[in-house]
Amino acid sequence: MSKTILITGASTGIGAATARALAKDNTLFLHYNRSQAEASTVAEAVAGQGGTAHLVQADLTTEAGCRRVVDAVQEKTDTLDALINNAGSLIERHTVETLNWDLMTKIFSLNTFSAMLMTRLCVPLLQKGTEPSIVNITSIAARHGAPTATLYGAAKGALDSFTRGSARELAPDIRVNAVAPGVILTPFHERFSTPERLEQMAANTPLGFHGLSEHIAHAVVFLLENPFTTGETLDVNGGLFMR
Ligand SMILES: NC(=O)c1ccc[n+]([C@@H]2O[C@H](COP(=O)([O-])OP(=O)(O)OC[C@H]3O[C@@H](n4cnc5c(N)ncnc54)[C@H](OP(=O)(O)O)[C@@H]3O)[C@@H](O)[C@H]2O)c1
Fold it and tell me: Could you tell me if residue 242 is inside a domain?
């Protein structure tokens, strides 16, 4: 059966791979911020697989941006079957000694508050959906400790906790899960990691290589499809972090 799905941050990396994985026969609302050309390429790929794609632009560091995305969805439908809160960024490397209020606000607005507000705004649409569920993209940084990305790790940790709280509150109607990626080769690391840093992290990873966006998309699809899973954070990290 055809599903209607909203994916934030669908222009590149994990969001784009998830859109491709979910394209067939579904209607996808693909959010992007700056990468319009990349988002259009993803939309074309979705159409090529028999899906329907609607693009929506917004900066999710603001409440207005979040509302704009949901308003755009509501112009076309009053039903959602899934919400994937994927948009996120480290924004800027820092240390505990150099962090400041402005950076804290930016990192938490994008990685935590936007996912929380998108959840709240989408619940009425999800309640009308079929076997509806939410997947939040958190990070290994939430549990592993990530020097120079401590705020980002804390913001993802808060989203991890929100996943469990909202899963309990919204059950049995809406399932809520998360995927916590390890090191995944996307534009994220082109921006924030040197080749030397990546090499070192691969050497520390038991499976010996970095993940691809498709590995995370696969985990998202599993969580969307498994009706007996809620409140779960699925680690997909090549063994770099084990519970
Ligand atoms: N790659 C990794 O190793 C890794 C590990 C753990 C967790 N993650 C998480 O996975 C998610 C996807 O990241 P990725 O690795 O696929 O990186 P990516 O390719 O850089 O994708 C990030 C996405 O977030 C969007 N975004 C960034 N800033 C935004 C803003 N201010 N407002 C709205 N959207 C914004 C980007 O949109 P535009 O490009 O259109 O601006 C893009 O679509 C993020 O939540 C990230 O924290 C990644």
Answer: no
